[in-house]
Amino acid sequence: MAIIGTFSVMYLCHFSLDNLSLMALTLAVGFVVDDAIVMLENIVRHIEMGETPMDAALRGGAEVGFTILSMTLSLAAVFIPLVFMGGIIGKLFNEFAITIGAAILVSGVVSLTLTPMLCSRFLKSEHHERDGRWYVGTERIFERALHAYERSLGWVMRHRPLTLVFSAIILVLTGVCFVLVPKGLFPPDDTGQLQVTTEAAQGTSFDEMVRLQSLAAQRAAQDPYIARFFTALGGGGGASASNQGTLFVTLKPANARPPANMVLAELTRRLSGIPGLSVFIQNPPSIRIGGRTSKALYQFTLQSGDLTQLYAAANQLMTAMRKMPLVTDVTSDLLNANPQVTIVIDRERAAALGVTPVIIENTLAAAYNEEQVSTIYTSTNEYSVVMELLPSAQRGIPDLDKLWITGSGGAEFPLTSVARYTQTSGPVQVNHSGQLASVTISFNVPPTGSLGNAVAEIQRVARQTLPSSISMGFSGNAQAFQSSLGNMGTLLIVTLFVIYIILGILYESFIHPITILTGLPFASFGALAALLLTGVELDVYGYVGLIMLIGIVKKNAIMMIDFAIARERAGHTTAEAAIIEACSVRFRPIMMTTFAAIASTLPIAIGIGASAASRRPLGIVVVGGLAFSQIVTLYVTPVFYTYLDELQDTLVRMFARLPWAERPAPGGMLPGGVLAPAPVAGD
Predict the structure, then answer these.
(1) 559: left (phi over 0), alpha (psi -120 to 50) or beta
(2) Which tens digit of pLDDT belongs to each residue from 531-566?
(3) Which residues contact 645 (CB under 8 A, 6 or more apart)?
(4) pLDDT tens digit string along 104-159?
(5) Are 352 and 287 contained in the same domain?
(6) Dist CA 423 CA 339 (whole Å)
(7) DSSP letter string over 317-360?
(8) How far are the Cα atoms of 104, 201, 332 from residue 239, in angstroms, in the given order?
(9) What is the pTM of this model?
(10) Domain membership flag for residue 138
(11) How far apart, in Å, are the Cα atoms of 271 and each of 220, 265, 636?
């Protein structure tokens, strides 16, 4: 029912079924059952206490109604900052956040309405299947686990200071793991495409480039894992210089070949043996963000109005970057050593012969520019007349001696009579970023490297190497990575603030939301430790997984604390006894909801399906965070609950001593959302 309702919201928002919306629905499968599990388990508990199914549905549903409301609203609120976030990350995950948020809200409504009704109709007071071996065996295992948990929880509650020390250690280790874990933007994915850039020496003729590119194409055709490819020279594809070419490669289906990175390594070895041709192969990311097309995935751009200083600084920085172990395949779009011929006109001699510079320019353009000089019209078609010298007359500088110039009087003179020429070198093209000339240095990160470490090291070396007159900055994916670090950190803080406000409104307290959120450091530690153990980067998907953990982990605390608060308000028990009883009663639904969430996320963590590598960090973060926090928070949350309850009592006594304080009714609320204790006998 929750998924069907989510489809309705997606239809109204004009969403499609794509990678992000399907990933949201996959994760939602584990979340939408949580509320129903809590409702169903509590109703069954009341039936086991001897109530009829109808009475159990009414009382059990009312008992956990506020708990489900708190769980649903606080989990859906986790995705509110993601919906309104700007930039590329906001645009990318807007559909994801709305889809999974809608699924959670619809599931809350279904759990509060449809689930109790179905329980009152389908559940029976007596369960004959309880005599079966399966039920007896599983129930025996659960009872043993519950008794073991109750005994260990009792020991922890008797040694509460040790729990605080353990929590402090985990908090420090979380910071250490965050520093150590490699960081990136998007993980490498197998899209079935490879992009090959070939580059010859500057000044290589077109005929020679055709020969070299043909050799590269022949070797690529011999690769058994390539389904097809096409090749381009010069201005085609990503290579715009005359000494560069491109091969766009389509690989065979994933089940008929090794992973794309292994094919890339083999193809690099196959194409690198061509004399006079350098090869740069990249596995393009599934999402390319801005930046100019280059020979590697990441770019660092330098800008200056002084070309001489710009080119010198670029060469100096490239030399320094090639010595870094954190980056590979360092190259640039700087091509400033192309052979060229400079023609110097003898203006006095040319004026005496009636030859103007325009005449010389037009003669050279007609000889080498393939200019259209006329059009031949026929009855059915028209033909462009293009004039140029024969290729045999364009091979070298001596061929310039054969050019003749027509003066203003009609007389003809050899070019050498009015001009001289020298051979120099210059840029093939002058690239610009905005209004300034620029040089873009591109680089890759080794398989075991980290984009975050590479970015920090390049910035450090650039500040030490480049003069202050050179403007510099990352572009494309590297620039998006820089901005995403700050955006995601801000998003985490805003998410925590929103959750705290919503929980504070629901519980009318400043203290209880803090108790509920105490499990977040343990979830973060488990998530970061899982990334370190698997060698996966903390990227954008990983950050989204951390945000989801905020909503998932606190659900366990809500189930315990909501029950304990209800027991305290009834006035039958102390805070410690109430939370211990809550842990025992809520142990089963906590375990069920956690395992349901892990089961729904496990396929994403394993990487099942096409293009699954990009989504693995999210699954690993959620599974690792839940697996660790599930064990720890069952012990730590009760300890923090008792300590914060003592803090609450201290605040009550401090407020009571104030001369202007009003005396609340027993069990009423003090300012600040603090519950006034009810009097007991003997007070």
Answers:
(1) alpha
(2) 888 888 888 788 888 888 887 888 888 888 888 888
(3) 511, 575
(4) 899 989 999 999 999 888 888 765 555 567 777 888 888 888 899 889 988 988 88
(5) no
(6) 7
(7) HHHHHTT-TT-EEEEES----EEEEEEEE-HHHHHHTT--HHHH
(8) 48, 14, 12
(9) 0.72
(10) no
(11) 7, 10, 58
662 lies in a domain? no
Q: How far apart are CA 145 and CA 528, in angstroms?
A: 28
Q: Which residues contact 280 (CB under 8 A, 6 or more apart)?
A: 196, 197, 198, 199, 295, 296, 329, 331
Distance of alpha carbon 634 from alpha carbon 162, whole angstroms: 15
* Torsion angle, alpha carbons of 440, 446, 450, 451, to 10: 20
DSSP bridge partners of 374:
385
pLDDT value, residue 288? 67
How far is residue 150's CA from residue 584's CA, in Å, rounded to a whole number?
A: 7
H runs (alpha helix) in 402-537: 451-465, 477-507, 512-517, 520-534
Domain match, 378 and 328 both: no
Distance of CA 386 to the CA centre of its chain: 53
- 319 and 217 both lie in a single domain: yes
CB count within 10 Å of CB 256 equals: 10
Ranges of beta strands (E only) in 398-435 are 404-406, 412-414, 419-426, 432-433
Per-residue pLDDT tens digits for 339-370: 888 888 888 888 888 888 888 888 888 888 88
Count of residues making up the chain: 683
Can you tell me the distance from the alpha carbon of 125 to that of 559, in angstroms, rounded to the nearest whole number?
25
Domain annotation covers residue 573: yes
CA–CA separation, 369 and 29 (whole Å): 65
Q: 3-class DSSP state for residue 385? A: strand
Residue 310 and residue 471 in contact, taking contact as beta carbons nearer than 8 Å: no
Q: CA-CA distance, 590 to 395, in Å (whole number)?
A: 81
List, in sequence order, every residue forming a beta bridge with 302; answer none if it has no partner: 439, 472
The total domain count for the chain is 3
In 183-285, beta strands by DSSP E:
193-199, 226-233, 244-251, 278-282
Q: Give the SS3 label for residue 176.
A: helix
Provide the CA 119 distance to its chain's centre, in angstroms: 42
| 610 in Cβ contact with 534 (< 8 Å) | no
Domain boundary among 480, 496, 514: 480
Q: Are residues 648 and 570 in the same domain?
A: yes
pLDDT band at residue 682, thresholds of 50, 70 and 90? very low
Tokens of 678: 């009810």
Q: Are residues 48 and 169 located together in one domain of the fold?
A: yes
DSSP line for 17-47? --HHHHHHHHHHHHHHHHHHHHHHHHHHHHH
Give the CA distances from residue 491 to residues 11, 105, 494, 503, 672, in Å, rounded to whole numbers and listed in that order. 27, 21, 5, 18, 27
Tokens of 269: 């070895």
What is the DSSP-derived secondary structure letter of residue 235? T
**Same domain? 359 vs 300:** no
Cβ–Cβ under 8 Å, residues 327 and 510: no
Domain residues for 284? 193-336+434-480
Residue 23 token pair: 């990933």
Upper half-sphere CA count for residue 605 (Cβ side, 13 Å): 22
Chain position carrying tokens 């009550």: 652
Helix (H, G, I), strand (E, B) or coil at 382: strand
